[in-house]
């Protein structure tokens, strides 16, 4: 049985739902200047706002204007918590101001009050791919150590302001995806840096992420001073990399590939880099600049829990030709003959979730929180506008079964489960509307047309029942 404190809910990120990109004094964030993409084509990083392009994030599903209606629907489903992010640019439009934007602060006050009215706990990510664009243009993004100061200031302002409304925090969303630095989008949205345009992309990535790790640790420390009851976590993209075969070469290759996935998690959770990181830097002649106080900061700022996203596993083969675009595969990835993939090539593997939870728990012995999981699909409403998303129910059900095994059979300390995109939102990787995850359908198409009307999909009633029975009736 799951504990009766188990946090069932849903997850989104500000820039994928809010819209209102220039309302309420909000500044331009880096996602505001990405173009939308089409299936199979990467989103593009532009050099500023192009007026003649369709920018899905600019309007998104207008959660900014509809949040009361949406929160009411979340409450009807029985959500115990709701994960979203604070758009840094609503609070500090440029990122380097001293004084916050009052209207931005008020928006999140209103949103959190609305959630709390229904007994829904806000779970807040401080940085989910939406740093101020000004910090990229003016300072070069997180490559610049100065960003630590700006981020810590922003975090302190919002933690102080919402200290009685928000208990659960996360610092950076999927910080470890930057390890996949050959794929520009991940590095850019996390750090504002296009690594493969740098002289030494990998060394630059390590230096950049080091600044984020120090900032994260400082925020954990400062946050606990503001309210000792705060639970402040990290957020890791968890993609277990299976060896393709029991050939020792494949076994070793998968272990080495997993080193990459854990590296930054180790710093968040243990307060130090793993031994193999130092060896790699030495071997490759990298010089990662660290201030003398950094080691102490990292040690003192270890996280309280690990938030994770889980969508897929990958199989890796030592002698595979490098393939994949960084979204559907990591270097050495090969199709796994035992699992199917979604339309976007994401391998569907519910057992992999139990595997992932075991990996993380064995390594860290810290509470885990599944803050993203879900099935992106093209939903087709019938004539009445109803979406019968049995495929989504099937996906989530199978994952919840394995999640429960991790708790009930493996004894994993799991705080909660918030499926991704509980209301339809803009897909991050494709920039499109048509890749949907929600229990709630939003009438908006890929070209931005639609009424923005909200309606319940079949999965809405299903998930409501799951929460009502604490995961017993699937
Ligand atoms: C994660 C991000 C989310 C989200 C999700 C699904 O990497 O944290 O922001 O979007 O992936 O990806 P997509 O929207 O591309 O299907």
Report on this structure.
This protein has helices at 14-17, 56-59, 63-77, 88-91, 102-117, 133-139, 146-161, 184-191, 201-226, 248-270, 275-284, 294-300, 350-364, 390-408, 458-468, and strands spanning 7-11, 81-85, 121-127, 168-172, 231-237, 241-243, 305-309, 314-316, 333-334, 340-341, 347-348, 368-372, 414-417, 440-442, 454-456. The chain is of the alpha/beta class. 39% of the residues lie in helices and 13% in strands. An eight-stranded parallel β-barrel has the order 1-2-3-4-5-7-12-13, surrounded by four helices. Strands 6-8-9 form a three-stranded mixed sheet, covered by helices on one side. A two-stranded antiparallel sheet has the order 10-11. The model has no long low-confidence stretch (mean pLDDT 94). It contains 15 helices and 15 strands. The protein has a single domain (7-468), classed as Glycosidases (TIM Barrel), CATH 3.20.20. The site of 6-O-phosphono-beta-D-galactopyranose (BGP) has 14 residues, from loops.
Which value, in Å, is the CA radius of gyration?
A: 21 Å
Protein structure class: alpha/beta
**Number of folding domains?**
1
Q: Write out the strand line-up for the largest beta sheet, numbering strands in chain order.
A: 1-2-3-4-5-7-12-13
- As for the CATH topology, it is TIM Barrel
- From the spread of the alpha carbons, the general shape counts as globular
Query: Which CATH top level class fits?
Result: Alpha Beta
Q: Average pLDDT across residues?
A: 94
**Number of E-type strands:** 15
Helical content stands at 25-40%
Bound molecules: 6-O-phosphono-beta-D-galactopyranose
Unreliable segments (pLDDT under 50, ≥5 consecutive)?
Answer: none
Largest sheet: 8 strands, parallel, barrel
CATH-level-4 superfamily name: Glycosidases
Taken in chain order, the helices and strands follow as EHHHEHHEHHEHHEEHHHEEEEEHEHEEEH
Proportion in β-strands: 5-15%
InterPro entries: GH (IPR017853), GH_1_N_CS (IPR033132), Glyco_hydro_1 (IPR001360), Glyco_hydro_1_AS (IPR018120)
GO cellular component, one term: cytosol
GO molecular function, one term: beta-glucosidase activity
Active site: 372
């Amino acid at each position: 049985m799951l504990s009766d404190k188990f946090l069932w809910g849903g997850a989104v990120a500000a820039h994928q739902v809010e819209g209102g990109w220039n309302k309420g004094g909000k500044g331009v964030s880096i996602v505001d200047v990405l173009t939308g993409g089409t299936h199979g084509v990467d989103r593009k990083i532009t050099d500023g706002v192009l007026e003649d392009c369709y920018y899905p994030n600019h309007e998104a599903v207008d959660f900014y204007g509809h949040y009361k209606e949406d929160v009411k629907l979340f409450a009807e489903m029985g959500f115990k918590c709701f994960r979203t992010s604070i758009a840094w640019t609503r609070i500090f439009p440029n990122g380097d101001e001293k004084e916050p934007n009052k209207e931005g602060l008020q928006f999140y006050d209103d949103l959190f009050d609305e959630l709390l009215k229904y007994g829904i706990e806000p779970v807040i990510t401080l940085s989910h791919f939406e740093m101020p664009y000004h910090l990229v243009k003016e300072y070069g993004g997180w490559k610049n150590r100065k960003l630590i100061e700006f981020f810590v200031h922003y975090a302190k302002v919002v933690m102080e302001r919402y200290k009685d409304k928000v208990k659960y925090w996360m610092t950076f969303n999927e910080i470890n995806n930057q390890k996949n630095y050959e794929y520009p989008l991940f590095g850019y949205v996390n750090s504002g840096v296009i690594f493969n345009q740098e002289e030494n992309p990998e060394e630059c990535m390590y230096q950049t992420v080091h600044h984020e790790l120090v900032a994260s640790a400082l925020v954990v420390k400062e946050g606990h001073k503001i309210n000792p009851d705060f639970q402040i976590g990290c957020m890791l993209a968890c993609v277990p990399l299976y060896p393709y075969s029991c050939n020792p070469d494949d076994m070793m290759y998968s272990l080495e590939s997993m080193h990459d996935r854990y590296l930054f998690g180790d710093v968040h959770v243990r307060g130090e880099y793993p031994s193999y990181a130092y060896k790699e830097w030495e071997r490759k002649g990298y010089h990662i600049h660290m201030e003398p106080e950094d080691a102490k900061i990292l040690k003192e700022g270890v996280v309280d829990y690990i938030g994770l996203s889980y969508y897929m596993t990958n199989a890796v083969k030592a002698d595979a030709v490098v393939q994949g675009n960084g979204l559907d595969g990591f270097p050495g990835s090969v199709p796994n003959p035992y699992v199917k993939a979604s339309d976007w090539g994401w391998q569907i593997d519910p057992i992999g979730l139990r595997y992932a939870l075991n990996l993380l728990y064995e390594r860290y012995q810290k509470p885990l929180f599944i803050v993203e999981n879900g099935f992106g699909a093209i939903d087709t409403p019938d004539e009445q506008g109803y979406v019968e998303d049995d495929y989504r129910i099937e996906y989530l059900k199978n994952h919840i079964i394995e999640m429960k095994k991790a708790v009930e059979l493996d004894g994993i300390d799991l705080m909660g489960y918030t499926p991704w995109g509980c209301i339809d939102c803009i897909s991050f990787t494709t920039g499109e509307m048509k890749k949907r995850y929600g229990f709630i359908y939003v009438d908006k198409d890929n070209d931005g047309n639609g009424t923005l009307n909200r309606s319940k999909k079949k999965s809405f009633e299903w998930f409501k029942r799951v929460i009502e029975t604490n995961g017993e009736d699937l």
